[in-house]
Amino acid sequence: MDYPVWDVAIGGGMLMAWVAVTHVIVSHFAVGGGLLIAVAETLSVRRGDRELRELARRSSLVLILFSTVFGAISGVGIWVVAGLISPAAISALIHNYVWAWAIEWVFFILEIVAALVYYATWDRISRGAHLMVGWLYVVGAYGSLVVINGIVTFMLTPGRWLETRGFWDGFFNPTSWPSVVLRTGIALMMAAVFMVFAALRASPEARPRLLRFLGWWLVAGTLLAHAGYRWWEAALPDGIRRLFLGAEPLLEQLAATRSLTLWAMALTLILAMVFLVGIPRLVRVVPAIFVAAAAFAAFAGYERVREGARKPFLIHDYMFTNGLLVERIGEVDREGVLAVSGWATLAAGEDPVSVGRQVFRVECSPCHTLDGYQGIRRALPTLAGLKAVAGSDAATAETVFRARCLPCHRDSSAAEMRESLPTVAEMDEDPEMMQDLLSGMVTGTLERLRDMGDVYAEAGGFRPVDTRALSHPYMPPCVGTDGELEALAAYLETLRSGGAGEEKGGR
């Protein structure tokens, strides 16, 4: 909340997702690819296998291009984007794990130097020395993965760190080891699917054998990733698991992504067994693309689930997605959002709508755009929506209720809402009553979001919060003074009624 908001038309979270997913696919190939290349060269030396050695040579060029060029650039991109959309979280991570980042940079420098030396010294130094360089790369790449994994998992499950603020308590958190296993499997998956394209350039006689070699690695990586994923899920606290698990998950889209992840893993395993292991002679570019797409979908799905499971936090039970610290809820309620966000004070005008617009930018825009990803305008109640619930047949009403009403009315049902609403005829006869009802629904939701702040404030950022009793456990509480709450409601009213609270389609 102390930093200005960087407005992105598609939403900061969506931009971060695109940058991060492309980076992690390449970075995990850099880890797994180094291992598979080193293993391939080691086996080629022991067996005198020229084709396996050539596979390692060709793959090392791909490794250089992706890991030291695209991987490094996209890694910087992650820092830039994350620093702009979540500066408070980046600051907290640096302050808590500055020495971990320093160690990661040591591993990263070793990885880059070893990769360049490895590729540049083929047939120029002894095979033993060349192998040593390859295995040094493996140490650097895998060490980098382990360090970053500890920090990333800390953001989801800080564990005892909430009480102790201890470095190791946060680093070796409840999901750190499951995630290491999961990411090791994913690294092997990424390595195998990338190296398949290098194997396709081998001679027709050697190609099936090399593809089968990579196929078994892909099978092993997929099975290891699946085991790690199941372990990771089991290690999550109940409050996080209920977001996407169970008969009625709180975030249905996240539950659907979780299903996609598991099905994509299963598809990757099937394609690997059928094509790479079973009929490698028939594998060409198109089947290889299908195998790679399935593996990429599994990895991207997991990353989406992991990020979504953090809602409503950047660092669970410590910092919300809008940068609000749990321990500062009482202070912000007393002094006001604009009092602690000086940049917003300067931008706010005198009228309530102008104040409400700045409160929205501070509290809501980190997750909600106006009309884009998670558009707030679409989430606001409308007269057409109420008429659809009240005047449609039961099946249609249920569909509309689940799509538009359920996020705010989980303690109700479509049938109960139909009974409580006026009839369509009554709605048409008294439009002023309906406008008051719609405005009251917005205000009531904001009040429930504000009441959640009391639950979090009691924890103070020093213990996990049981979110099962909260009305919106996937959203931050609404904080600020009574006047700011009224101003936010007034601003949302302009969006709901089609006013010019902002340029349509913007933030």
Description:
- By secondary structure, the chain is mainly alpha-helical.
- The chain contains 22 helices and two strands.
- The protein has helices at residues 12-47, 50-85, 87-120, 127-156, 161-164, 167-171, 176-199, 207-235, 238-241, 252-278, 285-308, 329-335, 337-340, 342-347, 352-363, 376-379, 383-391, 394-405, 414-420, 424-429, 431-459, 482-496; strands at 313-315, 319-320.
- It has a two-stranded antiparallel sheet with strand order 1-2.
- Strand 1 and strand 2 form a beta hairpin.
- Helix 17 runs antiparallel to helix 18.
Characteristics of this structure?
mainly alpha, disordered C terminus, Formate dehydrogenase/DMSO reductase fold, two-stranded antiparallel ribbon, 507 residues
Helix-strand layout with pairing:
Elements: H1 12-47, H2 50-85, H3 87-120, H4 127-156, H5 161-164, H6 167-171, H7 176-199, H8 207-235, H9 238-241, H10 252-278, H11 285-308, E1 313-315, E2 319-320, H12 329-335, H13 337-340, H14 342-347, H15 352-363, H16 376-379, H17 383-391, H18 394-405, H19 414-420, H20 424-429, H21 431-459, H22 482-496
Antiparallel strand pairs: 1-2
Helix pairs in contact: 1-2, 1-4, 1-7, 2-3, 2-7, 3-4, 4-7, 7-8, 7-11, 8-10, 10-11, 15-22, 17-18, 21-22
CATH architecture of the largest domain: Up-down Bundle
Total beta-strand segments: 2
The amount of helix comes to over 70%
Specify the oligomeric state.
Answer: single chain
Q: Outline, from the CA principal axes?
A: elongated
Number of domains: 2
* Proportion in β-strands: under 5%
Low-confidence stretches: 503-507
Distance between the termini: 17 Å
Number of helices: 22
Arrangement of strands in the largest sheet: 1-2
| Helix and strand pattern | HHHHHHHHHHHEEHHHHHHHHHHH
Write the CATH fold name of the largest domain: Formate dehydrogenase/DMSO reductase fold
What is the level 1 CATH name of the largest domain? Mainly Alpha
Main β-sheet description: 2 strands, antiparallel
**For the residues shown, what is the average pLDDT?**
91
Class computed from helices, strands and strand pairing = mainly alpha
Instruction: Round the Cα radius of gyration to an integer and report it.
Output: 26 Å
